Amino acid sequence: MPNARSSALDKALAVLEAVSDQPQAVGLPDLAARLDLPRQTVHRLLGQLASAGLVVRDPSRERYSVGPRLAKFSFATLRSLNQAAPIRSILQDLVDEIGETCNIGVLDGLDYVYLQRIECDWPLRLHMEIGSRMGAHTVSGGKVLLANLDAKLCQRLLHGRALKAATSHTLTDVGKLQAELAVIRARGFALNDQESMDGIVGAAVPVVDPKGNVLAAVGMQGPLPRLTLEACEDFVPHMRRAAERIAHVWFD
């Protein structure tokens, strides 16, 4: 790794990238081995990155994970990317294909945040501003992202705060929600059966990077009785194609 050793900045970026690449917290020995750097050097860099809020240290296990400041940067970057014409064009194509409002969103803790939305042409539709937040457990996009989190991280999130009911259909029991997340993870998409708003159904699929990491979700939603859960499921192949196109724009 000659480039990563050419300067202090390159080394710090290499450490940061190595921490970000791991689905769960990683220890100092593993990082030093991966980067082929002395443990003392990696320890010093981790201390600097932790002071800047870019990584966080679990003192009980001496392991490191992505910090709040880096998560904020990542969120801002994705939000900026999704304002670009190619992303809007892909979403618009999807809306034209299925005739319902579509969105791209990411997780922020236990919130699902809408990075981009394209409204359908129907007079009866759900209007939400870009940047709006919903409980991740109440919407298909949030559930598909929770389903693809590291299991320990997901468990910490779900037990970190009470799951509030948005409707009588919302799953607020952690055990039942985890069972549904396992089904979602296995089949590769999530459905929303009036869990965020009465009379609104939807579906979502993951956006996957070249390393297999799930970074965002492409979702759609609409009102009953114009839209049914069966119809939402029928739209999944369309959403998967759109998600693949978005991944190509982001990562190619």
Query: Which class do the helix and strand fractions yield?
Result: alpha+beta
Count of β-strands: 9
* Relative helix content: 40-55%
If you consult CATH, what is the topology of the largest domain? Beta-Lactamase
- Count of the domains: 2
Structure description:
The strands form two sheets. Strands 6-5-4-9-8-7 form a six-stranded antiparallel sheet, with helices on both faces. The longest helix is centred in the last third of the chain and has 16 residues, at 236-251. The relative contact order is 0.11. It has helices at 8-20, 28-35, 39-51, 68-81, 85-98, 140-147, 151-160, 174-187, 229-234, 236-251, and strands spanning 26-27, 55-58, 63-66, 101-108, 111-118, 133-135, 190-193, 200-208, 214-223. The chain is built from ten helices and nine strands. The chain folds into two domains: 3-66, Winged helix-like DNA-binding domain superfamily/Winged helix DNA-binding domain (Arc Repressor Mutant, subunit A), CATH 1.10.10; 72-251, Beta-Lactamase (2-Layer Sandwich). It is globular, with a radius of gyration of 20 Å. A hairpin with a 6-residue loop joins strand 7 (190-193) and strand 8 (200-208). It has 252 residues and is an alpha+beta fold. The model is unreliable at 1-5 (pLDDT under 50).
